[in-house]
Amino acid sequence: METGKQLTGTLAVAVFTAALGSLQYGYSLGVINAPQKVIEKHYALSLGVWSERSALPENITEGESPPEEEKHPSVVMYWSLSVAIFSIGGMVSSFLVGFIGDFKGRVKGMLMVNVLAVAAGLLMGLSRMWKPHIMVIMGRAIMGFYCGLTSGLVPMYIGEIAPKAYRGALGTLHQLAIVIGILLSQVIGLDFVLGNDEMWHVLLGLSGAPAILQTILLPLCPESPRYLYILLGKEQEARKSMHRLKGAYDPAHDLEEMRREKEEADKEPRVSIRSLILSSVYRQQLFVALMMHLSQQLSGVNAIFYYSTAIFTQAGVSQPVYATIGVGVINTVFTLVSVALVDRAGRRTLTLVGLGGMCCCAVAMTVGLKFQNDYSWMSYVSMAAIFLFVSFFEVGPGPIPWFIVAELFSQGPRPAAIALAGCCNWTSNFIIGMTFPYIQAWMDCYVFILFAVLLLCFTIFIYFRVPETKGKTFEEIAAVFQKKKRIPKDNAELEQLKSSSDA
């Protein structure tokens, strides 16, 4: 019997179009790093603090910044703000994901917020026409605000339109697009491409380019059937949308599932962020969702990128920037592996394998950093640990938290849950970015022991608390959590409650 499991051209276009927002998110994450010295020079020129150092032209090549200790405090402040403001924008806007997703719909919501991305791209692309430090900071703030929204809207939309059999693989495409965006920004940010004195503003301005393509394609994408039926009550439009997404099939089974979900949602008041936090009904799902996002950001993966260039340099790599790009390639390849495995091995299994492998790599990294001055070959242990760490991250802990939140919650609380999880992700990312240099200075090479302990704790938590969602309907996943809260109706349920109460 036909169940609508096939992948259609319309579904492929819809997922690709949505993932363009994720590509833009990844590009914006990585684009600011490569041209740092060039941008700092233009900040200094604009602020009028470059002249005191320009008397040494023989020692400073084109597009190169002077030694670290000679940087003017104003340049350091504006540069730090350029980097940090992106996360702050994402933290603020992540709270609005649910409101925009429900108010305008998933497709129109993504279309509407593209105005922000284009405006941010124009501000940065035209930054040399006025004060670059002001225009770049404004552009990065607006782009961060946009990315906070798109990092919630994209997984929400893909999770709702994907057939159950492919929900994991299609959900993983959000993370795949992010890492492709990061890799793309690393490659075209090379000095001989766009990361130079003449073209750096174009490099930053291209951050808004995917939004233009997405704006052209979004009108071709069907709205989420779950949004149309459960939130708006438009059964015929939902049916039409399902036929466009899944081809010719009998949607009765899917409609019945949505009807039951709508009945459950109608019994309860609208689930806002505040009511979701206070509700005991969704407490377990919310705790699991937040812990999954914390495990992604507190895993130490950003610290790996922080250390990679220095470790590659010490290992004798003449061009460490290319080795760092190699890490980006590994990122992309193993996210593809996750796409292939997530609907076979399952979300829980891949996350456990990823976190466990990262824990072992963090220990190996600590050993390599500790002894690389005593034994030259230890640098290669550190390099191998970097590549393996990133590989394990992208197999599970990187992509899965983004879409599993949409699976853990029914239609009513889903937007609020995605907003909270996104805010948790952005906030922890910001905290790690701001505090890691201090933690690293305090713990030195032992910093990865801290991450190893955190990874072990997250592995244990997921083993005992996170259910497998592979192949389950949204209703069945919700029932896994609700089962422990309901008053038992017979002895079998009583025994099950007793056996699970110790967990």
From TrEMBL:
InterPro entries: GLUT (IPR045263), MFS_dom (IPR020846), MFS_sugar_transport-like (IPR005828), MFS_trans_sf (IPR036259), Sugar/inositol_transpt (IPR003663), Sugar_transporter_CS (IPR005829). Keywords: Membrane, Transmembrane, Transmembrane helix, Transport. Its main location: membrane. This is Major facilitator superfamily (MFS) profile domain-containing protein. Residues 14-470 form the Major facilitator superfamily (MFS) profile domain. The chain crosses the membrane at residues 7-27, 76-99, 111-130, 136-158, 170-194, 200-221, 286-309, 321-342, 349-371, 377-395, 416-439, 445-464. It holds the Pfam family Sugar_tr. The keyword Lipid biosynthesis does not apply. GO terms for biological process: D-glucose import; dehydroascorbic acid transport. It is a multi-pass membrane protein. One of its GO terms (molecular function) is D-glucose transmembrane transporter activity. It is found in: Membrane. SUPFAM superfamilies: MFS general substrate transporter. Gene3D superfamilies: MFS general substrate transporter like domains. The keyword Transmembrane helix applies. Signal peptide: none annotated. Belongs to the major facilitator superfamily. Sugar transporter (TC 2.A.1.1) family. GO terms for cellular component: brush border; plasma membrane.
